[in-house]
């Protein structure tokens, strides 16, 4: 099998709670603007192609579950307001960094479940075209945990509303059972969109793990989890492009961001990525807490769709 000609591997510090580099690169050199607000801090960069916006909720780690749910919904509502002020912008990709993501409250729900309930509530009330859940265009998202205090939400909004893509091997997250919380995680597995008007179409793939249906697979085995994750990435690419399927779907990926729960697994995962995804231009890695304790690896990425 060919080895990857990847030019750039980088390991993020655990506190580098930023969106994928490819999204940051879209707004390189564009000044960031801060919006007034105490409880929810907003800043953004805007260009003719779209906007990259960050919402930060200081001290979210210390909030009880009911307030954490409410402030999550409020943060997403503020994001909606900001996008509406700039006209014809569609949220297509979110990166969520959640403090103590698996910490359980006295009610038995973990922090991720509480976050999902707040996000679901905000999406149901989202204003503008499509309204409730954007007329079926639920944005793609990643959500991982960190050891800091703040809830951080990054949003990539584009002029192109994009087309959501689901993985036929997986249950759509919005249809997850109550095992995963009172309200489901609201995100699509991937979104097909043009990052710039008139540019090529890309597939923005959200955090993808060793999940089939709605169940985690290969508990405790990082190699098998990575293999299952790569299979899910390949299946998503085929679902997005449609027949005829490319001979080597994973070679469409240009960028990957790999989240690993244990730093000892980083090189094992990267070795498998190098061998199976051979046309990458950049790979980032980051140690992070994942939304399920049994998951050891999660991979997101950007793939050329044409």
CATH topology term: 60s Ribosomal Protein L30, Chain: A
Low-confidence stretches: none
Give average pLDDT, whole number: 92
- CATH top level class name: Alpha Beta
CATH-scheme architecture: 2-Layer Sandwich
Measured between the Cα atoms of the first and last residue, the distance is: 24 Å
Can you walk through the features of this model?
This protein has 306 residues and is of the alpha+beta class. The chain has one domain (8-304): RutC-like (60s Ribosomal Protein L30, Chain: A, 2-Layer Sandwich). The chain has five helices and 15 strands. The protein has a seven-stranded mixed beta sheet with strand order 1-14-13-15-10-9-8, with helices on one face. Strands 2-3-4-7-5-6 form a six-stranded mixed beta sheet, covered by helices on one side. A hairpin with a 2-residue loop joins strand 3 and strand 4 (50-57). The chain is globular. The mean pLDDT is 92.
Topology:
Blueprint: E1 8-11, H1 21-25, E2 33-35, E3 41-47, E4 50-57, H2 65-85, E5 90-99, H3 111-124, E6 140-146, E7 151-158, E8 163-165, E9 190-194, E10 201-208, E11 211-212, E12 215-216, H4 222-241, E13 253-260, H5 266-276, E14 282-287, E15 297-304
Parallel strand pairs: 1-14, 5-6, 13-14
Antiparallel strand pairs: 2-3, 3-4, 4-7, 5-7, 8-9, 9-10, 10-15, 11-12, 13-15
Helix pairs in contact: 2-3, 4-5
């Amino acid at each position: 099998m060919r080895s990857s000609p990847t030019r750039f591997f980088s390991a993020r510090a655990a506190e580098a709670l930023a969106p994928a580099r490819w999204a940051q690169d879209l707004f390189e050199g564009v000044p960031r603007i801060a919006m007034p607000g105490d409880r929810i801090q907003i800043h953004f960069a805007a260009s003719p192609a779209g906007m990259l916006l960050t919402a930060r909720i200081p001290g979210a780690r210390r909030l009880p579950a009911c307030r954490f749910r409410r402030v999550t919904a409020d943060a997403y509502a503020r994001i909606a307001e900001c996008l509406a002020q700039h006209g014809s912008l569609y949220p297509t990709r979110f990166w969520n960094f959640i403090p103590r993501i698996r910490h359980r409250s006295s009610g038995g729900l973990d922090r991720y479940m509480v976050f999902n309930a707040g996000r679901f509530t905000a999406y149901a009330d989202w204003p503008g075209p499509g309204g409730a859940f954007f007329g079926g265009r639920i944005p793609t998202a990643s959500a991982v945990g960190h050891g800091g205090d703040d809830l951080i939400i990054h949003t990539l909004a584009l002029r192109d509303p994009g087309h959501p893509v689901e993985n036929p091997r997986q249950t759509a997250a919005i249809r997850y059972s109550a095992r995963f919380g009172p309200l489901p995680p609201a995100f699509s597995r991937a979104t097909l969109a043009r990052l710039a008007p008139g540019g090529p179409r890309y597939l923005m793939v959200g955090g993808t793990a060793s999940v089939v249906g709605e169940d985690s697979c290969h508990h405790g085995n990082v190699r098998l989890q990575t293999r299952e994750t790569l299979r899910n990435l390949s299946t998503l690419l085929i679902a997005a492009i449609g027949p005829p399927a490319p001979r080597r779907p994973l070679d469409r990926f240009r960028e990957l961001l790999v989240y690993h729960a244990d730093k000892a697994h980083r090189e094992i995962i990267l070795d498998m990525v190098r061998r199976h995804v051979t046309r990458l231009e950049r790979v980032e890695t980051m140690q992070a807490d994942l939304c399920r304790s049994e998951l050891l690896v999660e991979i997101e990425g950007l793939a050329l769709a044409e």
